[in-house]
Amino acid sequence: MKWTSRLTSFLFVLPYLACFGLFLLFPILYGVVISLQDFELLSSEHAFVGLDNYVSIFTPGTYENSLFFRGLWTTAQFVLYSVPLLIFVALALAMLLNALPARVRGLFRTFYFLPYALSASVMAVIWLMMLDTNAGFINSLFARLGFAGIPWLTDTPWAWVSLIGATIWWTIGFNMIIFINALNEVPEEQYEAASIDGAGAWSKFVSVTLPTIRPVLLFVMITSTIASFNIYAQPFLLTRGGPGDTTRVLLINVLDQAFARKDVGSASAMAILMALLIMAVSVVQFKLTNRKEKA
């Protein structure tokens, strides 16, 4: 390859590399540096403390330890509740839409994908209007039907039901579109061969559909897990972490440590640990799925 061709190729990727370095790589590296300092937000002096911020997080009885692990446990609960639904509901919707007549398929795709285009604040306003205990649409409808209202956002387990329901409504369209594209790539000949062998709908799904879309399934599982670990908008805007601290996820605690308590160094250490945990979970998911595929 001539040097002019190499230069042209480099110039094409240069804008991406510049944005990657400026908006992703530099903030990550700077966050690591901050996590090694006593970085008070209102102080001009930031003493180097090494791993003290990390040690404090892992020392039982400290405020940082309680804040980090309580938030991590709440976040882990959300991941466990939401990720299976984000995968299987999206796959079920994709299969359902593929079974519809072609003339209405595009309409329903748009209908299910549209919420994904909304901002977090718009999503929260919609669901607050739906779920408000005193004046929400759902409880108003229940009152007209003679049923007692439900404290959707102020009591457990309803707060979790509300958060997961809002999350699925808001984000399911993205996974659904990915699954639709994957299902369209399954060779029709494989379904015909399975039909000749006497396979039913479930057997076709298990023996033909799932093995073919396995790479896409892995992608959706990992991206959904990462997104669920990074949950912030839904509990912050809908429940404010309540009732009590039951929906106070880790990112809320990290931002509270940084901007309410002004301890950016400790908050950065929590964020770095959270990022490492997400990476570890993603690697484990990838390894386990690949192992099953090879077996």
Automatic annotation (TrEMBL):
The keyword Transmembrane applies. Keywords: Cell membrane, Membrane, Transmembrane, Transmembrane helix, Transport. Residues 72-285 form the ABC transmembrane type-1 domain. GO terms for biological process: transmembrane transport. Its main location: membrane. InterPro entries: ABC_transporter_permease, MetI-like, MetI-like_sf. CDD domains: TM_PBP2 (cd06261). GO terms for cellular component: plasma membrane. It is found in: Cell membrane. PROSITE patterns: ABC_TM1. The chain crosses the membrane at residues 12-33, 78-99, 111-130, 158-180, 216-233, 264-284. Pfam families: BPD_transp_1. Belongs to the binding-protein-dependent transport system permease family. This is Sugar ABC transporter permease. It comes from Paenibacillus albicereus.
